[in-house]
Design goal:
Length: 488
């Protein structure tokens, strides 16, 4: 038996299920990037809102690449399980807010039709850092990006999320329908501001002056999203099926913690997410900086060092006292760069983070977080390194994570085995590393010269370059584990 509307009634009483009528729910939100994170975060908040108060806020999810999620969810009437896990076990809940799934490359017209539909008021995105086709060091549109070139060459058959948004906005304007709000839910600094600039830039490439129309008519709220959601494993699937008594082809697994801070800037209405725990604020920036630097900065650092040291998961890595010590010291370096809102208990936040990383029930792989480092390093570690350098402060802990990334992207681990490096720049990084060889004195400056990651300033900064080179030499000579243990 499969999880679907018909089997909902047979689930054990302990499993929470949608407490609202899903039939006839209007599509209010089209979400680009129907991955596990969206399904364990925004879709859950929306599910909570619908249970409190019925409204036109059904979500149509779009996969921009693979059909896997749609194929798994379609036979389930788009229902899926959220398994919330911690040391105490798992609690299951069925989420009903997703009412449709589309696969963009299969049927771009269907995606554009959903985005241009009269009931659609919000287009939200979780397409990961690399999905924005931008230059990570500057945040500007990369006009040479193959997806951007594809969007311009064939606008009726877009490739990127930006291409879909621009084409759908043009169609809405032509049909005299009001535009939707564009809400980025990715881990990027000033994500709303950034996507506003990217959409406007592409819009102008499409039609002169359309960028200004977009800026005048479309809201791009900034958001800070937070919930640790590892990729679902076959074991997770089996554990969910055992408890549900029916099969769910694609449940999502998450920690109990969830946070969503949203700038209140919507041109066509929104669900009352604040009634179910989201925080609506005037300025998201302080929250997103705190999260990106303390959570994601620590995550990336633990991912590279942990992977190199032979640890499979974040929980295993942070269980090593030397790694926990290093992360605490890194958080101190990061904190000096943060503007903490009044009333926000930053010490408590850090203590909670360490406990969240240690969650033994989440098998969050170091390899998963290590992906796309060229896109993740700038907001997570390099922005704060810049601030500290400006303040004349040392950057040793930040540099240690950067050095671990450099060691990782050489593509060979400490036992001489290949590393499956997933990164849009992986090929180039490997060539640079192969040409420079393993010695830190050559490898560090060669990788620092990758402008998209480090900009022009950091490679030229002697304090930064020296700190990274020294850290890379330690990791190379001692191995990641002993290098971390040797830190003061
Ligand atoms: C992680 C994030 O994969 C990664 O890079 O750092 O996905 C992290 O788990 C989330 O941002 C937590 O909210």
């Amino acid at each position: 038996m499969r999880l679907n509307s018909a089997s909902l009634g047979s689930l054990p009483a302990t499993v929470q299920r949608p407490r609202y009528d899903r039939r006839g729910l209007a599509t209010g939100i089209v979400h680009l990037g129907l991955g596990a994170f969206h399904r364990a975060h925004q879709a859950v908040f929306t599910d909570d809102v619908l249970a409190r108060e019925p409204g036109p806020w059904g979500i149509v999810g779009v996969s921009l690449r693979s059909p896997e999620t749609r194929d798994a969810l379609e036979p389930q009437d788009n229902l899926y399980t959220l398994a919330v896990k911690d040391g105490g076990g798992q609690r299951l809940r069925i989420i009903g807010s997703v009412i449709g799934g589309l696969v963009a490359p299969e049927n771009p017209e269907a995606v554009l039709a959903a985005m241009s539909g009269a009931s659609t008021r919000i287009v939200s995105l979780t397409v990961t850092e690399k999905g924005y086709c931008h230059d990570p060091a500057t945040g500007a549109l990369n006009p040479a990006h193959p997806d951007v070139m594809g969007d311009l060459a064939n606008p009726g058959r877009p490739v990127s999320a930006l291409g879909y948004i621009v084409e759908a906005l043009l169609r809405r304007r032509a049909a005299k329908l009001p535009p939707f709000t564009v809400m980025s839910c990715d881990n990027l600094p000033h994500n709303g501001r950034m996507i506003a600039g990217l959409v406007a830039a592409l819009a102008d490439e499409r039609e002169r002056g359309f960028g200004k129309w977009v800026a005048d008519h479309v809201c791009f709220p900034c958001t800070m999203v937070d919930r640790i959601v590892p990729a679902t494993t076959p074991e997770d699937r089996a554990a969910v099926a055992r408890e549900l008594g029916v099969e769910d082809a694609w449940p999502v697994v998450a920690e109990p913690f969830r946070q969503w801070v949203i700038e209140d800037s919507f041109n066509a209405g929104r669900p009352a997410w604040e009634s179910v725990g989201a925080e609506i604020v005037g300025d998201v920036a302080p929250y997103e900086m705190i999260k990106l630097r303390l959570l994601n900065g620590s995550h990336s650092t633990l991912a590279y060092l942990g992977y190199l040291a032979g640890f499979e998961t974040i929980a295993e890595t942070i269980a090593q006292p030397a790694f926990a010590r290093h992360v605490r010291a890194l958080m101190e370096e990061q904190t000096a760069t943060l503007a903490v809102p009044t009333g926000f208990d930053i010490d408590d936040y850090k203590t909670q983070l360490l406990a969240r990383f240690a969650n033994p029930a989440l098998k969050h792989r170091t390899w998963q977080i290590a992906m796309d480092g060229s896109q993740k390093l700038p907001p997570r570690l390099l922005a704060s390194a810049r601030s500290r350098l400006d303040m004349g402060l040392p950057v040793d802990r930040l540099a240690f994570g950067v050095a671990a990334w450099m060691r990782y992207v050489t593509g060979i681990d400490e036992k001489g085995q290949p590393i499956d490096v997933r990164d849009p720049l992986a090929g180039r990084l490997k060539t640079i590393a192969d040409t420079a060889g393993p010695k830190a004195e050559r490898l560090a400056p060669a990788l620092l010269a990758v402008r998209e990651v480090f900009g022009d300033d950091l490679p030229a900064n002697p304090t930064f370059a020296a700190a990274v080179t020294a850290a890379l030499a330690k990791i190379h000579d001692l191995g990641a584990r002993a290098a971390v243990e040797a830190l003061p």
